[in-house]
DNA sequence: CAAGATTACGACAGGCGTAACTATT
DNA sequence: AATAGTTACGCCTGTCGTAATCTTG
């Protein structure tokens, strides 16, 4: 799956056809057609139904639109990030946190940091459940991480308790809760097929 | 900026060197070296400082690590999405919302949807400030969008008020608020260089 | 001398455009 | 006939590996 392929794919979706997509991209029609068929061949899935002289998204194609948009947006963000880094940046702070913890004491920390270093850039990104906190910080992915207790303190890591946070389990009325749900609701949201992180699914 | 370049770049970062990266990627060292230099040339920025026989991330390179990881993760999510779409999916729901609105009545909506269609997949993604709600829904980016009032109702769009939400402005102690801050705090967070969306900066 | 990064170079694949073809309205 | 998508073919860029070169500990 190549970068350009997603770009062309989205162009076809947005312009409702290869012709328009090619015009929008500034390339010839066969180029888009080839790229699209190459992508379909590579994935082994038909992304569009060829109906008459038109193209309409298939189920698989539909499921690829969102993630592809995500990719292109993040690529743009990466490029922007880079041009921005040319400016006069005096400091830099990267913080990672589980989505549920993005509101709370952490904002006070950021505010304090901004007060002390007005020129600095602060970047805030989401933790995934499988991320390893110790390696994240060690490898320089971020300076701080916000996570739930308990977590084992790796060597050379400082852990400070920021506070408590109330949790609420949301579930459809009439749903029977599994045993022990009151104390350990684990990934209840996940079991409903819901996740809040971008582009993922359950 | 190509896809493979990011992959190689991250491999170099994670393996602390071109040699290890090449081994991890299963390619020859010159391949990685070329790809990396090509990326640097294309971006016009030096991503690594060559110190002795080692490579250490430059400031620009550092700023590219997070976004690149984001891209690769999203690509993986896209691929996964596609293989998953082969399965027996009975329904699909895409919802978009501003990050600040991701908790609230919306979860009840999702819960209700999941109760009715247990087989369905729900995807939840973030709105950007510049997104146009009407075109988002019209172009099939999502089925629902959650946004602040006021918003103009496009033709063929239904708008339902979900509820109210309390806002809090967080700022460093001692900061003088600009005039009218009590009623229109606009993008105050932004003015502090803080944004919560992944990979962006202020 | 050993380890690691870069350069040189030839082989190959892949993307591109032009042009010709097919099919649907 | 016109519009839209696909196939055929040739050009050219760029990626890869092998081998040689440079640099540092």
From TrEMBL, chains A, B:
Low complexity compositional bias, start-end: 189-202
Entry protein name: LysR family transcriptional regulator
GO molecular-function term, one example from the UniProt record: DNA-binding transcription factor activity
InterPro entries: LysR_HTH_N, LysR_subst-bd, WH-like_DNA-bd_sf, WH_DNA-bd_sf
UniProt family annotation: Belongs to the LysR transcriptional regulatory family.
Superkingdom of source: Bacteria
Source organism: Rhodococcus erythropolis (Arthrobacter picolinophilus)
Annotated PROSITE patterns: HTH_LYSR
Organism phylogeny: Bacteria, Bacillati, Actinomycetota, Actinomycetes, Mycobacteriales
Keywords: Activator, DNA-binding, Transcription, Transcription regulation
Cellular-component GO terms for this entry: protein-DNA complex
Record-annotated HTH lysR-type domain positions: 1-58
Disordered: annotated segments: 180-202
């Amino acid at each position: 799956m190549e970068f350009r392929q997603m770009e062309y794919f989205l162009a076809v979706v947005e312009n409702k056809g290869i012709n328009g997509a090619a015009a929008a991209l500034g390339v010839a029609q066969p180029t888009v057609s080839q790229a699209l068929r190459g992508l379909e061949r590579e994935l082994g899935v038909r992304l569009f139904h060829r109906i008459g002289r038109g193209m309409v998204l298939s189920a698989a194609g539909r499921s690829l639109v969102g993630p592809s948009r995500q990719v292109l947006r993040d690529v743009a963000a990466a490029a922007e990030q880079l041009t921005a880094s040319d400016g006069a940046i005096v400091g830099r702070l990267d913080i990672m946190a589980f989505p549920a913890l993005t509101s709370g004491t952490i904002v006070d920390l950021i505010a304090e940091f901004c007060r002390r270093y007005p020129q600095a850039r602060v970047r805030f990104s989401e933790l995934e459940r499988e991320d390893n906190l110790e390696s994240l910080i060690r490898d320089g992915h971020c300076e701080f991480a916000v996570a739930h207790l308990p977590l084992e303190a790796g060597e050379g890591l400082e852990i400070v308790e920021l506070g408590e946070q109330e949790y609420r389990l949301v579930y459809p009325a009439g749903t029977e809760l599994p045993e022990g749900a009151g104390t350990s609701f684990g990934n209840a949201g996940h079991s409903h097929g819901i996740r809040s992180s971008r582009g993922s699914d359950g």
